[in-house]
Amino acid sequence: MPALRIGLGHDLHRLESGRPFVLGGVKIPHERGPLGHSDGDALLHAVADALLGARGLGDIGTFFPPGEALTAGMDSRKLLEEVKCRALGKDWRVLNVDTVIVTDEPQIGPHREAIAQSLAQLLEIDPSCVGVKAKSSEGVTPESGGAALSASAVVLLEMREES
Q1: For residues 54 and 5, is the Cβ–Cβ distance under 8 A?
Q2: DSSP labels, 89-151
Q3: Strand 26-28 to 32-34 pairing
Q4: Band of the pLDDT at 1, cuts 50, 70, 90?
Q5: Helix 76-88 vs helix 42-54: angle between axes, to the nearest 10 degrees?
């Protein structure tokens, strides 16, 4: 029987004028983008935390402390790649990832497929194993009125069978 591990990640970023809007490694046209020390890609940060959590390795702040010069403006695809190497090594693989994005703007629906394709490529899994859901804040959360963006992710890992 294969060994399985599950991990949960979450991230929240304020949206600020003049910042690029990057989500799941996809640039989305919008006048504001997530504020962060890196590129602020909350979805990739949530996935990275989920990978680390599944392996009991802490969170991305453990490996990429906030304010570190090396990570200033860092492309979160690179951050996820480094986390993936640490969390998976040669012994583990991602079976699936399921995500939820909460923001009032921009609308995520038109970009859902591109985000799913990007996650599938980054995690080296089939796009059918990627879930991307978008939710409105309904005016009752920090994301209300497009002030912020949050993302949650759950990953399921499987230990590779010995050859």
Answers
A1: yes
A2: TTTEEEEEEEEEEE-SSS-SGGGHHHHHHHHHHHHTS-GGGEEEEEE--TTSSTTGGGSEEEE
A3: unpaired
A4: very low
A5: 10
